[in-house]
Amino acid sequence: MSNANQPSLTQPDAGQRSGLVRLMLEQWPYVLLFIAVIAGVAFTDMRLEFALLYWQILIPVFGLVALAIGWSGVGDDGKARTGFVIKTILHWGALFVLVWILYLPQLKDVLNAELTGLQIIFLLGLTAFLSGIHGNPRMSVVGVFLIVSGIVVAFLDDAALMMSVLAVAVLVGLIVWQKLTGGKSSD
Predict the structure, then answer these.
(1) CA distance 125 to 142
(2) On the CB side of 96, how many CA atoms lie within 13 Å of its CA?
(3) CA 43 remoteness from chain centre
(4) Mapping DSSP to helix (H, G, I), strand (E, B) and coil, where does residue 1 land?
(5) 174 CA to centre of own chain
């Protein structure tokens, strides 16, 4: 006997699908940013001569995402929005300049590619964390995740990229699983 009111285990109902789609639309920028950072660290290890360009592109992308996700929390006041934009540009601009300094030729003898990549992941993590404090708190979660990932990269070295991508997959899987099962009662 089949109960028509019982949800199917093989196909999610429309509410679950729309919830899953909404969840993925909400979380994709954070997952994408994290993967881009891990790829940047790997890129820094492999092709140091092009890594600066990669970071010079990625850091403004982080800044734009921070602007986009923090914009709704600013309110409708034009002065507050202008202040938020200026603070966000200065915040991410400071990181941009610091990363440029890390790639100065005078530092090549002191810092190797692996150390530079780790420094950048920690700096991005700290900058994202602080950005979250001043904007959308989810950006702080991204920052903490990046800092923890930097620690994982430092300890696991060669397996770091694989472990980090696996960590993102597990995190996304847990979020999806929680959203799909968290709202249901067990009756």
Answers:
(1) 7
(2) 15
(3) 17
(4) coil
(5) 16
